[in-house]
Amino acid sequence: MRIENSFIPVRGVGERTERNLWRAGATHWDEFDASLVGAKTGDRIETFIADAAAHLDDGNSRFFDDCFPSGERWRLYENFRDETCFFDIETTGLSPERDSVTTVSFYQDGETTTLVSGEDLTADALREQFTDAKLIATFNGARFDVPFLETSFDVSIDVPHVDLMYPCRTLDLTGGLKQIEKDVGIDRDRPDISGRDAVRLWREYERGDQSSLDTLVSYNREDAVNLERLMETVTGRLHDRACEGLDAELV
């Protein structure tokens, strides 16, 4: 599913109207004909297409983040795939006021970077990681990772965000990240570690055990990398569900 397949950002266009347009052959902005809908709706769609095409040419993901319904923002991924930053954090607890971030791993365009507390995990380093991102992707990051980083480092992570926990719920995929990975067939090379294990590994590192940090970082990096695999799976399933019953394919 690409942004150009979408009419749902337009005021007055819901899921039913969008599907009716697809059934009528308007599966892409280029195929839209105002005669397929009422005059006012047609004018609004034509205005949206003209504005949106310009913003898409400019790579302005914020425009689409603002106009897409929150439950449909997964549609931004296909257009901004190479500029999507997947990231995951490890902490010493659940409270950004009392606990601290230990490691943060980022995965974007095939490259993985990990920042470690006491070494290179700083506010400036975080800002640099998000500079080139047009989209960020997390699992439960809207409630945890993003506010934890913003509170701990006094940074503003103002990038369009797909928190994969919510599209997973739309597909009846529930539970934590590791459970959902198992449910969709994403395998890991090693047994999972819990949040408590992550804290233990960090404390062991603080006492001088470098191998504990190496283990923690490897898990953190795998979490970030696997978010891309989960995104591919989830957006693919949502695309298939949106196309169900249609004669035309959305490409």
Structure commentary:
A 5-stranded mixed β-sheet has the order 3-2-1-4-5, with helices on both faces. The chain is elongated. By secondary structure, the chain is of the alpha/beta class. The chain folds into 2 domains: 56 residues, DNA polymerase, domain 1 (Orthogonal Bundle), CATH 1.10.150; 155 residues, Nucleotidyltransferase, domain 5. 45% of the residues lie in helices and 12% in strands. Helix 8 packs antiparallel against helix 9.
Key traits:
251 residues, alpha/beta, DNA polymerase, domain 1, Nucleotidyltransferase, domain 5, 2 domains, 5-stranded mixed sheet, 12% strand
Q: Describe the sheet with the most strands.
A: 5 strands, mixed
| Shape summary | elongated
Low-confidence stretches: none
Write out the CATH superfamily name of the largest domain.
Answer: Ribonuclease H-like superfamily/Ribonuclease H
Binned strand content: 5-15%
Helix content: 40-55%
What distance lies between the first and last C-alpha atoms, to the nearest angstrom? 7 Å
Overall pLDDT metric:
96
So how many helices? Answer: 9
Architecture per CATH nomenclature, i.e. the level-2 architecture of the largest domain: 2-Layer Sandwich
Number of strands: 5
The whole-angstrom Rg is 20 Å
CATH topology of the largest domain: Nucleotidyltransferase, domain 5
Reading the helices and strands in chain order gives HHHEEEHEHEHHHH
Secondary structure class reads alpha/beta
Number of domain units: 2
Summarize the structure in short.
By secondary structure, the protein is α/β, with parallel strands linked by helices. It has nine helices and five strands; from the N terminus they run H-H-H-E-E-E-H-E-H-E-H-H-H-H.
